[in-house]
Amino acid sequence: MSAHRPRYRLAGRIARHVLLVVSATFALLPFVWMISLSLKPPDEIFQPDFHLWPKTFHGVENYRVALTAAPMLRFLLNGVFVCAIIFVLQLMVCVPCAYALAKLRFRGRDTLFSAVLVGLLVPPQALAIPHFVLLHVFGLLDTYAALILPWIISAFGIFLLRQFFRSIPDEIIHAARLDGLGEFEIIWRIMIPMSTPALAAFGIFSVVAHWNDLFWPLIAVRSEDISTPALGILLFRDDEAGQFLGPLMAGATIIVAPLLLAFLLAQRRFIDGLATTAMK
Amino acid sequence: MAEIELRGIEKRYGEAPVLKDVSLKIKDGEFLTLVGPSGCGKSTLLRIIAGLEDQDAGEVSVGGRPVDGARPKDRDVAMVFQSYALYPHLTVFDNIALPLRTRQLSFAQRLPLIGPLLPGHTGIERSIRKEVEQAAAMLDVAHLLHRKPGQLSGGQRQRVALGRAMVRHPTVFLMDEPLSNLDARLRVQMRTEITSLHRRLGVTFVYVTHDQSEAMTMADRVAVMMGGELLQVGPPEELYREPQDLRVAEMIGSPKINIVARAHWADDRSVLSAALAPQAKHLAFRPEAAVLITPADGVTNGTVTDLENLGSDIFVHVALRDGSETVVIRTTPDERRFSLGSTVGLKVDAARLMQFDEAGRRCGNIERVAAA
Ligand SMILES: Nc1ncnc2c1ncn2[C@@H]1O[C@H](COP(=O)(O)OP(=O)(O)O)[C@@H](O)[C@H]1O
Ligand SMILES: [Mg+2]
After folding, report:
1. Transmembrane ranges (chain A) (predicted)?
2. Which terminus of chain B has fewer CB atoms gathered within 10 Å of its CB, N or C?
3. A197 vs chain B: nearest CA distance in angstroms?
4. Based on the domain organization, do A203 and A133 belong to the same domain?
């Protein structure tokens, strides 16, 4: 038994790694392809033989076009602004809701929580038309508000934070009440600092979702100066379709880069946050 | 002045009653322990006194003032929790300072960034620092003020929790099994520290525990609770000598009190049958209320099944008749020794024999209790 256990373990490890490498390759392939295309001249892109690295390096030209042909910087700033405001407003709604659902006792709490779970099941696309009509009625279409308002109540955020808050012992909250903190101060001074992993995890979900979102900006916004990166690059494709695939891919790389960078920097935190929320 | 009075407290969670008509008066400056098996409602009662939970019926008053409906912070009550409930993201200093800050600083002064710039902030912070340092010195945690709770040992966390409770000078201290997470040696040491803290502060302590020896050694008075009811309240020696309920008799004292069925002993000369009350169903006696003698006719005989030698005492386990009842008798090492398996006679001091009726209530010599 003990004689063949190491070998068995080694085989298991190899199998595990092969599986991971294969799935990682599939996940990364489009991404690598995008970067590869963003470095190639137009005539090389449609050649039947595929090279990862271009024969003639056209990267500088592609990225120059990407940055100048459309107001890319403006799109990026719009993206940062919209994502940040969405996240802040989401927290202002989700944190108190999650606290009440996790720690306060009141009539109808469980029903309300079921409602949140139902909210989790509704695809955002299903709400696009009602949102559009509402924003039209209030005259907010084609403004930053149109990009932000539909997202500030996040059922997912309420659910995630509520689960995390439940893992914080009641005794801490009792101690805080005896120490003279009011409920909002308990949220602000106790719950939020104790929940940084969950908040970080939710932050990443939220920012990634809205940074990459194309569907809703496409419906709500037409002006170039409030476009988010994903929408901006689409406007750009409309103009320069086809032969300008290189600059298009360069643009895509530029809008993905900030997320990638942020993820690499916060990787450990993010994974910890996911692991702890999953465990509880 | 901070006596606590509970009148007819009832509490239920859903269908299950957790507290049934609990009435209790706790004197100013008293150290009262509340002892009972886990799940009997001790913590719930404490939370009701603190105002963290609303009772379904009954009244609570603290210092002669009804506090029903008053918020926890307005009751002048501090609580130490079983898990210590320290704020893990704050340093020891900030943990202890928090109750002072919420009371002494205004809402605006507590705001982050702007708060410290407001007039008066610096002066108040300075006096808070002094008080925190004083409390920390008293509890021997002054050198830990800059650490986070996660970096402390169990005993140190316990002291910080005590510091946070006492720093604002409450008139009532509620403690919910504060020592149950400590190892045995530290527990005994902290017991004496808590009782001496009580003597120094001179305020009312209500101390919850499921450990009867903790309850007995620390308290002025002990309240025994079971199944949401208060069974008996009294000084430790009264609970030990004159339990009014079989369950109290069983809970208090180590080793446990000996309980035998009356039916088996009715014709035994070692117990005067005539003195037994007619309704008595169970007889009970403490391990020191009987002596082992040479086996003879007319007394109860049994077989020694076990010997526990503690050095100062030897507890002899004796199986009576067919072994269906076992009693534990205390002997001293100077007395005659008994060997395992030997047959011995048992003689119970009739004056210290307690009688309980079918329902477990004390009967028979109850008059003597009333006189005492
Ligand atoms: N918040 C609650 N919801 C429902 N039941 C509870 C709650 N708190 C306590 N209980 C129940 O009340 C009973 C008494 O609990 P507790 O006061 O914590 O007992 P103890 O402190 O004596 O161990 C237990 O049966 C427990 O399950
Ligand atoms: Mg308890």
Report:
1. 14-35, 75-101, 113-138, 144-165, 186-208, 244-266
2. C
3. 13
4. yes
Answer whether B157 touches A (CB < 8 Å). Answer: no
- Minimal Cβ distance to B78: which of A178, A181, A185: A178
- Give the nearest partner residue to A175 out of B71, B85, B89, using CB atoms: B85
Which residues place a Cβ less than 5 A from the ion ligand 2? B 43
CA B42 / ligand 2 centre spacing (Å): 6
The alpha carbon of residue A148 is apart from the nearest alpha carbon of chain B, in Å, by: 27
Residue A108 and residue A168 in one domain? yes
Which sign does the torsion angle of CA A149, A150, A153, A156 carry?
Answer: negative
Contacts of B72 in chain A (CB under 8 A): 174, 177-178
Shared domain for A243 and A273, answered yes or no, is yes
Beta bridge partners of B361: B245
* Domain end residue (candidates: A28, A63, A98): A63
Tokens of A265: 């920097």
CA distance A238 to A216: 18
Q: Which CATH superfamily is domain B255-357 in?
A: Nucleic acid-binding proteins (2.40.50.140)
pLDDT tens digit string along B85-133? 999 999 999 999 999 999 998 888 888 888 888 888 888 999 999 999 9
Please give the CATH number for the structural domain made up of B4-241. Answer: 3.40.50.300
Whether B33 lines ligand 1, by a CB cut-off of 6 Å, is: no
- pLDDT tens by residue, A25-82: 998 888 888 888 888 887 777 777 777 787 778 778 888 888 887 788 888 999 999 9
Q: Is B91 exposed, middle or buried (0-12, 13-18, 19+ CB in 10 A)?
A: middle
CB of residue B34 inside a 6 A radius of ligand 1: no
Number of independent structural domains in chain A: 2
Q: Which domain holds residue A59?
A: 2-63
Distance of CA B320 to CAs A56, B263, B283, Å?
A: 102, 13, 14
- B127-163 pLDDT, tens digit per residue, is 999 999 999 999 999 999 999 999 999 999 999 999 9
- Judge if A272 and A225 occupy the same domain: yes
